[in-house]
Amino acid sequence: MADSADSAAAGSGGVGAGSGGVGVGPVVGGVGPGSGGAGAARESFAPQASQMSGPEVAELLGLQPLAEEGGLWAQTYRDQNSTAIYYLLCDGEVSKMHRLSGPEIYHWYLGAPLELVLLYPDGSHAIQLVGPDLPSGHRPQVPVPGGVWQGSSSLGSWTLLGTTMSPPYRQEDFTLGDRAELIQRWPAAEARIIALT
């Protein structure tokens, strides 16, 4: 996925597709001076991300449409060494096949798993599931080397990811894929290329 240095930087709570959400939030109360000790009642705040919709996630994180590639995004960090973004795909949206000159690391945060299609320069291809279900082969962090074509889609109603790049993302390093050219080079991945172009 690409971020755009020229755009304004504004960002599935499930364990496995279709499962209940996992939320994180502050814990009020506790053990310590004035807390009432270990037996004190604690109130926890744990929003269930699975009860949220993709548009709600986008609004809370200030996500905006990502030109060319698709999906919603917000840049969260940029310096001379690296960039980081939130990236959201909702049902029916895709990250179109594209290539970056440098490495990009995907981080799964919330929602359904992501199906990430990778087309390697040697003519091979792979499907990586980015998500929380480790026994099923998901990985919550997936590095994509520079020069590898990539495209993705959510396996549920929405998927929230982050990606980081070092060196930082530059728009001139982004190339959008051409369907006919990609199919000619990777015919075994034709169906997925069609879906992601």
What is the succession of H and E elements?
EEHEEEEEEEEEEEHH
Distance between the termini: 14 Å
**Helical run tally:** 3
Question: Any idea of the CATH topology?
Answer: Jelly Rolls
Please state roughly what percent of the residues sit in beta strands, choosing from under 5%, 5-15%, 15-25%, 25-35%, 35-45% or over 45%: 35-45%
The CATH superfamily name is: Jelly Rolls
Per CATH, which architecture?
Answer: Sandwich
Question: How is this structure best described in words?
Answer:
The chain contains 3 helices and 13 strands, in the order E-E-H-E-E-E-E-E-E-E-E-E-E-E-H-H. By secondary structure, it is mostly beta strands. It has a single domain (54-195), classed as Jelly Rolls (Sandwich), CATH 2.60.120.10. The strands form 3 sheets. A 6-stranded antiparallel β-sheet has the order 3-4-5-12-7-10, with helices on one face. A 5-stranded antiparallel β-sheet has the order 9-8-11-6-13. The protein has a two-stranded antiparallel ribbon with strand order 1-2. A hairpin with a 4-residue loop joins strand 4 and strand 5 (83-90). The two termini are 14 Å apart. Mean pLDDT is 83; it is low at 4-46.
Quick structural gist:
By secondary structure, this protein is mainly beta. The protein contains three helices and 13 strands, in the order E-E-H-E-E-E-E-E-E-E-E-E-E-E-H-H.
Primary descriptors:
mainly beta; 197 residues; 13 strands; 6-stranded antiparallel beta sheet; 35% strand; Jelly Rolls
